[in-house]
Design a protein that fits this description.
Blueprint: E1 3-7, E2 10-14, H1 16-23, H2 31-49, H3 55-62, H4 66-94, H5 97-116, H6 120-148, H7 151-165, H8 168-182, H9 186-206, H10 220-232, H11 235-264, H12 270-294, H13 300-324, H14 329-357, H15 362-384, H16 393-414
Antiparallel strand pairs: 1-2
Helix pairs in contact: 2-6, 2-7, 2-8, 2-9, 3-4, 4-6, 4-15, 5-6, 5-9, 8-12, 11-14, 11-15, 11-16, 12-14, 13-14, 13-16, 14-15
Length: 431
């Protein structure tokens, strides 16, 4: 495939795909390979969202309280964070195909152990391994795309991956609720184990080695450690990093508590809860798309500030409803919808600004962003459930604390703007 680029008003022809294909031993990013990457990227959100409607049932079955069940989210998120941080550099040294296949095998086995867990302790360990292997697979799958494409095609391919994989948070809870009606909560983990088993076969048959031996390098972990020091030395990057990570914290304060608030406190069935969960995911998606259209028209920091303000308003509504009115259903439904929709203005834009602060360390920046996001999710999930199944006060208080800290971090970033001009020509890094 040939691509064109404009230079001094004239159209010139180059062949980056041909050169890249030569560098990768003839491997190309086919539609089949891209489909495998999408399916691998969907496993992690499905492993969370199919499971959420069953929280009350899991607690009853395993003899665990709300905090114990929510800790299964924590161990999964910590595993995801570590898997992403370690998997990429490891595959830089050893290649993509072997580590990717190994991670999917482990993912299938961990999912089976989750399905068979007799106690909450076994579930916690299995969820950690499931998250670690899932994060490992996700980061290598993304690396395969980067290995096999470049330029505009790389951008389009990654957008396709994120766009199609974004269906998982909408479909996941609905599938989980349907499985609960037909059988039990353990079936969702058997479904994930079967999905991973199919992916082992698909990857083995259709995904080539995208990183030839001559392009591999030693010292991946050491190199990552040096690069991390560089990106964390940028106050602007750190500010936006905190905003993005705390947006993930808000999201998973909601994920960890919404099932108890809407089912245990307000009597919704698992199916009705899943419908509400899916509608909130649709709101998040639509607002994210609207924020993308604002790029170049509205300063990005302003968009983030509006999102944080809406998040704070939702937090106040939820706190008042939880503390003084025993969380009426309409308060929970409206508050959760505004809370989740507002994250479409916050997280993606903060991530974009953070990446713009460290263009010379974009890979490391992405690894740090992903690592801190999932660590924050893992810490916040059990804290939000400290009050048990019958109160949402801790969740609402945590949301307000995260919003306050995010405003402070946004101010830090604004006072340490990047010295590099915006490459996109719009006010990405200007207020």
């Amino acid at each position: 495939m040939r691509t064109t680029s404009e230079r001094h008003g004239e159209t010139t022809v180059d062949e980056p795909d041909r050169l890249l294909s030569s560098a990768t031993g003839g491997a190309r990013l086919s539609k089949v390979v891209l489909a495998n990457v999408i399916l691998l990227t969907m496993i992690a959100p499905l492993a969370t969202d199919m499971y959420v409607p069953a929280f009350p049932l899991v607690g009853n079955d395993l003899g665990a309280g709300a905090t114990g069940v929510q800790l299964t989210l924590t161990t999964f998120f910590v595993g995801m964070a570590l898997g992403q941080l370690v998997g990429g550099p490891f595959s830089d040294q050893r290649g993509r195909r072997g580590p990717l296949l190994a991670s999917i095998v482990v993912l299938a086995l961990a999912s089976a152990v989750c399905a068979l867990s007799p106690t909450i302790g076994v579930m916690l360990v299995a969820r950690f391994v499931q998250g670690f292997s899932g994060g490992w697979a996700m980061v290598i799958a993304r690396a395969v795309v980067v290995d096999l494409t470049s330029g505009p095609r790389l951008v389009r391919s990654l957008n396709v991956v994120q766009g199609v994989a974004g269906i998982a948070p909408i479909v996941g809870p609905l599938v989980g609720a349907l499985l609960l009606q037909l059988s039990g909560w353990r079936v969702s983990f058997w479904l994930l184990a079967a999905w991973a088993a199919v992916m082992i076969l698909c990857v083995a048959l259709s995904v080539p080695e995208s990183l030839p031996v001559e392009r591999r390098h030693a010292g991946g972990i050491r190199r990552l450690r040096r690069s991390v020091g560089h990106v964390l030395g940028r106050p602007g990057f750190v500010g936006y990093l905190v905003v993005m990570a705390f947006s993930m914290g808000v999201t998973f304060a909601y994920v960890a508590t919404s099932a108890f608030v809407l089912q245990s406190m307000n009597g919704l069935s698992p199916m009705m809860y899943s419908v509400d969960f899916a509608l909130n995911a649709v709101g998040l998606t639509l607002v994210t798309l609207a924020a993308a259209r604002m790029a170049g028209r509205v300063p990005t920091r302003t968009v983030i500030a509006v999102g944080l303000t809406a998040t704070g308003a939702a937090g106040v509504l939820l706190l008042v409803g939880a503390a003084w009115f025993d969380m009426p259903l309409w308060v929970a439904v409206v508050g959760f919808f505004v809370l989740m929709s507002a994250q479409g203005l916050v997280g993606p834009n903060a991530g974009a600004l953070a990446s713009a602060e460290v263009p010379e360390h974009s890979g490391t920046g992405s690894a740090v962003l992903g690592f801190l996001q999932w660590c924050t999710a893992g810490v916040i999930a059990p804290l939000a459930g400290l009050g048990g199944e019958r109160t949402a006060v801790p969740m609402a208080a945590i949301v307000l604390a995260l919003v306050a800290a995010s405003f402070a971090a946004l101010a830090l970033a604004a006072h340490h703007p990047s010295s590099r001009p915006s490459t996109s020509g719009h006010p990405m890094s200007r207020s």
